[in-house]
Amino acid sequence: MQDFRFLNTTEIVFGTRAQYAVGELTKKHGGKVLLHYGGGHIKRAGLYRQVTDSLNNQGVDFVELGGVLPNPRLSLVKEGIEICRRDGIDFILAVGGGSVIDSAKAIAAGVPYDGDVWDFYISDMQPKEALGVGVVLTIPAAGSEASNSSVITDEANNNKRFLDNDLLRPRFSLLNPQLTFSLPPYQTACGATDIMAHIMERYFTRVKDAEITDRLCEAALKTVIGNVYKALKKPDDYAARAEIMWTGTLAHNGLLGTGRIEDWSSHMIEHEISGLNDVAHGAGLAVVFSAWMSYVYKHDIPLFAQFASRVWNVEIDYNNLSYTALEGINRTKSFFKSIGLPTSLGEIGISPKHYGHIAANCRRADGKTVGNFVKLQSDDIIEILKLAE
């Protein structure tokens, strides 16, 4: 197990009335608030009224900025920064899923900064200060409700980049599984896959003797796998939705990566794919992750055999661990397909003509390799993309 530092300062309120605490908690952190959200779903579902009534009842002054899209756009982030500066905003309330939260975090980092907020996403520059962010979560997927991460798309250049900084961790996040009952099946499946990918990026490590987080990762994966079927079959299954929602938070709040060196190459590759064609992040990960596993598993066959056994209940063939490892990879891919997600690049509009662009762009301009389990060069990335055809 590696040395580590674990920090998570986000207050979580979980339960059937969690959103009604939003006014009280927001008042503790902000004097004037930007209410940030996506489209009309929160209004149709009645959540917008619940949130604004709670804010009004607590005397919280707020202005609104809606319109966040999946793969949140830099242009809206910059609009939000200008609104906050103009109106003296000192706190941002994100009501939505990961895209809304990531957009809110980017605005929070950009308001106190004299330069272009995109500087933080394309270089090693880090914000020195940021506005506070609060969250009412509507989609369990990205884990942004308790993470230090933000992912933003520069739509002008088809670039999708991330920023990790502890200043971006939300001050509070309100989680009510009932708010996810109305999610379409495809969005539920994409969210579950995003959660699984966050876990697997941490699970597949070259670090040995990290049994506690091995077991935590395996339990989290089995929880998502078992409950996504229940949620798809019965969308208002509170118990299933609750398990998925809380696992999504634990998957990306830093706990499951303690003592480990994380990978993240599949995410880096997928970011370039969704930067090109705006595919849902979970759908892109369903395509990329199985291909990545097939390409790298020989670097630690026992770990992949362990994954197959503990997560997918594959009986270990000690005379042929490779067979066991490959069976786990096959079951992972089959699972994604069984919940209605694509498993090939062709299904999401990516052809071989894009491979060079994806391989070049997912490596930073300084020429660093991608990933840690196996450090991938451009040629490796292209081979992974070929496996995903």
Could you explain how this protein is built, in words?
- This protein has 389 residues and is of the alpha/beta class.
- The protein has 2 domains: 11-179, Rossmann fold (3-Layer(aba) Sandwich); 184-387, Up-down Bundle (Dehydroquinate synthase-like, alpha domain).
- Helix content is 48%, strand content 11%.
- It contains 15 helices and 8 strands.
- The protein has helices spanning 22-29, 41-44, 47-57, 74-87, 98-110, 119-122, 185-203, 211-233, 238-251, 265-277, 281-296, 301-312, 321-338, 355-361, 378-387, and strands at residues 11-14, 32-37, 61-65, 91-96, 132-137, 149-154, 159-164, 172-175.
- It has a 6-stranded parallel sheet, with helices on both faces. It has a two-stranded antiparallel sheet with strand order 6-7.
- A hairpin with a 4-residue loop joins strand 6 and strand 7 (159-164).
- Helix 4 (74-87) packs across helix 5 (98-110), helix 7 runs antiparallel to helix 8 and helix 8 runs antiparallel to helix 9 (238-251).
- The radius of gyration is 20 Å and the shape is globular.
- The mean pLDDT is 96.
